[in-house]
Amino acid sequence: LQSSYAELAGSPVRHLAALGLGTIFYVRGQYDAAESLLSQIDSAGSYPYARGRATWLRGMGAFAQGRFADAQGHYDDTLATFERMGDVELAGGAHNLLSGLAFQLGDKVNEWRHRRAAIDAMAVSRSPRFKHTTLATAAASARQDSPEAALAIQDKCRRGVKREGQSLQVRRDERERADNRENIADGASAQG
């Protein structure tokens, strides 16, 4: 793949090929190789979509390595790129990344500010995966502070997943709902 990429020098699709190769490096856990390749896309000459996806992956690599400040910068760049493009769904995905980072850092205010923006983006999305990810992560976050709210979010998530026919995810969501119901019951019996 790397030799094929090298053959694209000067080609207008070089940045898209770099994005694909950088994605492979990321998935393999070769974060330094991914960073080296993806950082080349982050230039004025690349397509905005490729630039946004490159900073997305660079942020995920930084997050995986515990470099949260770098992840924040890359995710902010991703969001800005997709907002400039007017792509509400991809901007919503960037908000999901930022909410996950804020969750990791214990920053509930920014976490829910970004979650709300991602939830708002669901209105224009046609992607079942985006919708499910948005709701499932919101439910997981809400679970500790408000199992009842988490259960309501999971119900909405479950209805959407069933509509899309994603049976494996339905089973996973059902287990989480059962856990939430158990937490609610445990809380009620502890109070009573």
Write structural notes for this entry.
- With 192 residues, the chain is an all-alpha fold.
- 82% of the residues lie in helices and 0% in strands.
- The protein contains ten helices and no strands.
- Helix 4 (48-64) packs antiparallel against helix 5 and helix 6 packs parallel to helix 8.
- The mean pLDDT is 83.
Topology record:
Blueprint: H1 2-6, H2 14-27, H3 31-41, H4 48-64, H5 68-85, H6 88-105, H7 108-121, H8 128-145, H9 147-164, H10 167-191
From the structure above, extract its key features.
192 residues, mainly alpha, 82% helix
Task: Provide a quick synopsis of the model.
Helices cover 82% and strands 0% of the residues.
Specify the helix fraction band: over 70%
What would you report as the Rg, rounded to the nearest angstrom? 19 Å
Number of helices: 10
Q: Assign the structural class, choosing from mainly alpha, mainly beta, alpha/beta, alpha+beta, or little secondary structure.
A: mainly alpha
Main sheet overview: none
Secondary-structure element series:
HHHHHHHHHH
The low-confidence runs, each spanning 5 or more residues with pLDDT under 50, are none
Tell me what portion of residues adopts beta-strand conformation. under 5%
Kindly report how far apart the N and C termini lie: 63 Å
Gross morphology: elongated
How many β strands by DSSP? Answer: 0
Average pLDDT for all residues: 83
